[in-house]
Every structure is written in structure tokens, then in C-alpha cells.
From TrEMBL:
Top-level taxonomic group: Eukaryota
Topology of the protein relative to the lipid bilayer: Single-pass membrane protein
Protein name: Leucine-rich repeat-containing N-terminal plant-type domain-containing protein
One GO CC term on file: membrane
UniProt key word NAD: no
PANTHER family tied to this protein: LEUCINE RICH REPEAT FAMILY PROTEIN, EXPRESSED
Keywords: ATP-binding, Leucine-rich repeat, Membrane, Nucleotide-binding, Receptor, Repeat, Signal, Transmembrane, Transmembrane helix
Alphabetized GO MF terms: ATP binding; protein serine/threonine kinase activity
UniProt keyword Repeat, yes or no: yes
Species this protein is from: Oryza nivara (Indian wild rice)
All residue ranges annotated as the Leucine-rich repeat-containing N-terminal plant-type domain in the record: 54-76
Residue ranges crossing the lipid bilayer per the database entry: 591-610
Length: 627
């Protein structure tokens, strides 16, 4: 064996040498044989030069180069010539529809994208048009197209048609019946009316008709589209019961019926569509109970703003694949199910009639981002297990009957942006760790029984807090001067507490403050002159304290209430302490809660599934304090 090894060693060395020579000599040889792109067909080149005059500088096309190398242009070669097969000109500021006459002569074109331009009458330019013969994809979305939909005769190979976000109107009857290979149709955000079209080819896989004026019932003819994977009928005027025929859609993945006037019960056939992973039926008039097993396959369920009643099924929150659940604003009773899936990202059960305590098992949903249980009849304590959910960004437990202390661990949630616990029976000190929550923007603890001092120290400078609501508690001590470090604050509401001492002299350093409520406390001393430096101030409530001295001059548009401070000196000309001012403050407080409700936009999920294997994550969409 040793002799054989020695005998073959030179052979291996020779092979390595030959391989090295091949690598060294092969690179320049390959480079020398590389061919330049085939020259564009003369007729197509003339057409592209003509299009160039309309596109102008928006695409930065090099006029001296081969048009096949221009951005948005794709060519395919046949023999020694090349032909344009794909043309993408989105957002090029095009408005003159005569450019389509040139594009129509590209008889080999398979894909045309003219989205986000300003065309107004493109449909009338589609005949005669040689490109119809081969075109497979046509995107005219986000233009200014108006009028009724014309016929699409001659597009025998068209598979994708997107006319969304235009101003098209009228009924759709047979205009799309001559598209035998159509797979995807998007007519969303137009003004179409009449019944939902049912004369489209059965090859259809994606049908998006949202944001129109389609009316009448959901037609039975719709169920002939047996290849559908996406059906979106939201934001129309559909009414009546939903036909229970969804077993006709064995491939359906996304069903969106939101924002219509649909009635009746949730169709039970949805439970057996094993491919369905998103169902949006929110903002309708559905009644009855939630079908048991509806989340067995569905990963994203939105039935909010209906009239559903009864108990929440015990297994509803438990499936391992469940990601989001929204049952807001129904008439659901009973308890929140205790078996909570670890995969949940969003739980919205607010504004129902739910009782009992908050399940400790919610802490098992370690990926939870969004928890809204507001406006119910929940009792008991806030479970400390919530602090395990390190991704929590929005917690709303307001308007319940929850009691006890705030778990200290909530102050360690580094991703928390919104914490709303107002209108409960909470007590104890506000955790000092709240002063270090660098992501927190909205903190509302009003109308509880919190005691102790304000939890703001010199370390609060990094906070992004823009709404601070502590109204109606039993907080005591002084207002620390370090509160001025919270420079993002738009609203400070410390009214109806037991605060003492003076108003900090640096209160006027806030650059964005619009509302300051220190009413119904035991504050004394003068109103700092720096208040006049609050350029964005809209309302100043200082009533029912022990303040004295002159009130700084403020612009006339600022709503001021200083009643209940006998020592305050006002200029006769600027006497703002009329008897009606007290009522104005209460009215304004009601209005500010409405504003606060809209202040948080919450979380929205990507509307459509992105593709196989891609995990769908919630996207935070809060209104930030920055300008």
C-alpha cells in the first residue's frame, strides 16, 4: 500500500497543476468569448426611441445604448435580433395616452406596467393593438382612469389584470368574459357598482373587488370560481346572509368580507376549508355564536364590530398556528379561554361583556405584540406573567374592574409603546421602572387609586413619552422639575390628585405641549411666567388649587381655567374665569379622550399573505410624537 501511494503521488500533483493552469487561462478565455446583448429589432428600436420622448428623464435612459439595456426594459433574443417582452414604467409622470399607441406596436410584449401615472382614458386606446396577442400581465393601477370599463376583446393570453386605485365606475357584466386565461383580477378602489361579476373565466385564482360600490347579495355564481385562492369583497355595499358554499373553494387561502352590511351567522363551511388561513369578516352585522373549531385552520381571524354573542369557544385561542384574533366590539360573554397559544401575536377582545380574570396563560404567548382587553367587566389582578411577553408594544386593559398593583415586571418591557390602564381599581405606587421605558409614548393610568409620588427622575431624558395621563388618582408629593426632560410631551394631565408645592419654573420649556391640566390639587405659589413660552399650548387647566399672583399673558386662543384660586390676579380685559369656563373644561376633557383614542393607530397586519414559508408579522403603526 505504501508503494502504491508513492506511485500515484506524481499523478495527483500533475492533476493539480493542470487544474491551476486551466483556472488561470480559462478566465480570460471566457471573457474573450462573452457576447454583447443582441441588437434590438429595428422596428422595436424605433418604437422605444419614440417612447423615450414621453418618458423623458424620469428613467435616466442612455439614448446612445441598446434599449434592451434601459431600466425597466427586458428583451428576449430570437436568432440575431432581440424583441421587447417586458416594459415597466411605473411612476414616470405619464399622462398622454398617445404613448400607448406606440407601446401597442410591441407585438411581442408579455408584461406591461404603467402603474402610478396619470392616464385618464387608457381603455379607449387598447384597440386596435398588436400587443394584445401575447400580453400576459397588464398593470394600470393608481392612475386617473375614469368612466365605464371597456371590453377586453383580443387579450387571449392575459393572466394578470390590475386596474386598482382609479376612478372607473358602472356595472361589470361581460366586459371581462373574453379573458380565458385570467388568473388574477384587481379592481379595488374604484367606483364599480351593481352585482358582483360572475362571468369571468373559471381559471381565476385571485379576485380583489374591495373599495367599490358593489351591492346586492353575494351571488351563488361566485362559487363557480373553484380555483380561487384569494377573494376580497371588503368595503362594498353587499348585504344579506353569506351563502354557506365555501367548500366549492378547496384552494382558498384568504377571504375578506369586511365592511359590508352582511347578516346572518358565520358560514360553517369555512371550518372545512383546510387551506384557509385568513378570514376577515369585521364591520358587518353577523349574529349568533362563534363556530367552534373556526381557528383550527385559520391563522388570522377578524370578526370585530359585529353582533356576535355567547361565550368564546374554549379552544379558540389554543391552535399552535394561530397568529391574530380580533373580536372587538361584539356582545361576547363569559370568560377569556385559559388555553392560549404560544404563536399568538395579537389578541383583541375589547368592548365586549367578558368577565372573570385575565388568564395567566397569556404570558405563554411569548411573541405577543398586541393585547387589547379594554371595555369589558374583567376583575382580579394584572397577571405578572405578562412580563414574559418581551415583544409587547401595546397593552390596553382600560375600562374594566381590575385591581391591585401594577406588576413591576411591566416596567421592563423594552418594546412597550402604549400602556392604557385607565378606569380600573388599580392602586399602589406607579413602578419606578416606568421612568426608564425608552420606547413608551402613551401612558394612561387615569381614574384609578394610585398613590405615592410621580416616578420621574433625572434618568427620564431618554423617554419618548408624548401622552401622560394620571388624572383622578391619589398621587402626592411635588411635581419634579425633571418632568421637563420629557420634551416629547404633548399632553400632561395630572388633574384631580393630591400634589403639593409649586409648579416647576421650567414648565415653559416644553416645545410640543398642547394641553396642561394641573387642576384639583394643592399647588401653591405663582403660575410661572415661562408658561407664556409654550408656543403650542391650546388649553391650560389650573382650577381648584391655592395659586396666587398674576397670570402670565397668553394668546387668546388658549383655553384657560383658573377658577377656585382666589389669589390669582387677572387683568379685567382678560378675565377668563366666567362661570361657564368650568363646563368648558369638562367638555374639553371629553373631547380629548376622543382625540386620545385616535392618537394610537395600533397595529395592522399585512393585508395579504406574502408567499409560501414567509412568516407574517404584525407591523406597528402608532402615531409618533415627532412632527
Amino acid at each position: 500500500m505504501e508503494v502504491m501511494s508513492r506511485h500515484h503521488a506524481p499523478d495527483r500533483s500533475l492533476c493539480l497543476l493542470l487544474l491551476l493552469l486551466f483556472l488561470l487561462l480559462g478566465v480570460p478565455m471566457a471573457a474573450s468569448t462573452e457576447q454583447s446583448p443582441a441588437r434590438l429589432n429595428k422596428a422595436h428600436e424605433d418604437i422605444m426611441r419614440d417612447i423615450l420622448s414621453s418618458v423623458g428623464s424620469t428613467k435616466n435612459w442612455n439614448t446612445s445604448s441598446n434599449p434592451c439595456q434601459w431600466s425597466g426594459v427586458h428583451c428576449s433574443s430570437v436568432a440575431s435580433s432581440a424583441f421587447v417582452t417586458r416594459l415597466s414604467l411605473p411612476g414616470c409622470g405619464l399622462s398622454n395616452a398617445t404613448i400607448l399607441a406606440s407601446i401597442c406596436n410591441l407585438h411581442t410584449l408579455r408584461s406591461l406596467n404603467l402603474s402610478r401615472n396619470s392616464f385618464t382614458d387608457l381603455p379607449s386606446q387598447l384597440s386596435p393593438c398588436p400587443m394584445k396577442a401575447e400580453l400576459q400581465v397588464l398593470d394600470l393601477s393608481s392612475n386617473m382612469l375614469s368612466g365605464q370599463l371597456g371590453d377586453f376583446v383580443g387579450f387571449h393570453k392575459l393572466e394578470v389584470l390590475d386596474l386598482s386605485s382609479n376612478s372607473l365606475n358602472g356595472n361589470i357584466s361581460t366586459q371581462l368574459s373574453d379573458l380565458p386565461k385570467l388568473r388574477s383580477l384587481n379592481l379595488s378602489s374604484n367606483g364599480f357598482e351593481g352585482p358582483v361579476p360572475t362571468s369571468i373565466a373559471t381559471s381565476l385564482e385571485d379576485l380583489v373587488l374591495s373599495g367599490n360600490n358593489f351591492s346586492d347579495h353575494i351571488p351563488m355564481g361566485l362559487f363557480r370560481y373553484g380555483n380561487l385562492t384569494l377573494l376580497d369583497l371588503c368595503r362594498n355595499n353587499l348585504h344579506g346572509d353569506v351563502p354557506d358554499g365555501f367548500l366549492s373553494f378547496p384552494k382558498l387561502r384568504i377571504l375578506v368580507l369586511s365592511e359590508n352590511n352582511l347578516t346572518g351567522k358565520i358560514p360553517r363551511s369555512l371550518l372545512n376549508v383546510t387551506t384557509l388561513f385568513r378570514f376577515g369578516g369585521n364591520q358587518n352585522n353577523f349574529v349568533g355564536s362563534i363556530p367552534q373549531g373556526i381557528t383550527r385552520n385559520i391563522r388570522m381571524l377578524d370578526l370585530s364590530y359585529n353582533m356576535l354573542n355567547g361565550d368564546i369557544p374554549s379552544e379558540l385561542l389554543s391552535p399552535d398556528t394561530l397568529e391574530t384574533i380580533d373580536l372587538t366590539a361584539n356582545r361576547l360573554e363569559g370568560f377569556i379561554p385559559g388555553n392560549v397559544s404560544r404563536s399568538l401575536h395579537s389578541i383583541r377582545l375589547g368592548r365586549n361583556l367578558l368577565g372573570g380574570s385575565i388568564p395567566e396563560s397569556i404570558g405563554n404567548a411569548i411573541d405577543l405584540v398586541n393585547l387589547l382587553l379594554d371595555g369589558n367587566k374583567l376583575v382580579g389582578y394584572i397577571p405578572w406573567q405578562l412580563s414574559r411577553c418581551k415583544n409587547l408594544a401595546l397593552i390596553d386593559l382600560s375600562s374594566n374592574q381590575v385591581q391591585g398593583n401594577i406588576p413591576i415586571g411591566l416596567g421592563n418591557l423594552e418594546q412597550l409603546v402604549v400602556l392604557k390602564l385607565q378606569k380600573n381599581n388599580l392602586s399602589g405606587d406607579i413602578p419606578s421602572s416606568f421612568s426608564d421605558m425608552s420606547a413608551l409614548e402613551i401612558l394612561n393610568l387615569s381614574h384609578n387609586s394610585f398613590t405615592g409620588e410621580l416616578p420621574f427622575t433625572n434618568s427620564t431624558q431618554s423617554l419618548k413619552l408624548c401622552y401622560l395621563g394620571l388624572h383622578g388618582n391619589k398621587l402626592n408629593g411635588v411635581i419634579p422639575s425633571s418632568i421637563s426632560l420629557l420634551q416629547s410631551l404633548i399632553t400632561i394631565d395630572l388633574g384631580n390628585n393630591e400634589l403639593i408645592g409649586i409648579i416647576p419654573t421650567n414648565i415653559g420649556t416644553f416645545l410640543k405641549l398642547e394641553r396642561l391640566d394641573l387642576s384639583k390639587n394643592y399647588l401653591s405659589g405663582q403660575v410661572p411666567s415661562s408658561v407664556a413660552n409654550l408656543e403650542r399650548l391650546m388649553c391650560l387647566f389650573l382650577s381648584d388649587n391655592n395659586l396666587s399672583g398674576p397670570l402670565p399673558e397668553l394668546p387668546k386662543w388658549v383655553m384657560v381655567n383658573v377658577t377656585g384660586n382666589p389669589g390669582i390676579i387677572l387683568d379685567t380685559e382678560e378675565n377668563r374665569t366666567s362661570g361657564s369656563m368650568k363646563g368648558s373644561q369638562d367638555d374639553f376633557r371629553s373631547a380629548i379622550w376622543v382625540a386620545a383614542a385616535s392618537f394610537v393607530l395600533g397595529f395592522s397586519l399585512s393585508f395579504y399573505w406574502a408567499g409560501p414559508g414567509e412568516k407574517l408579522m404584525p407591523r406597528l403603526e402608532t402615531l409618533h410624537c415627532d412632527d
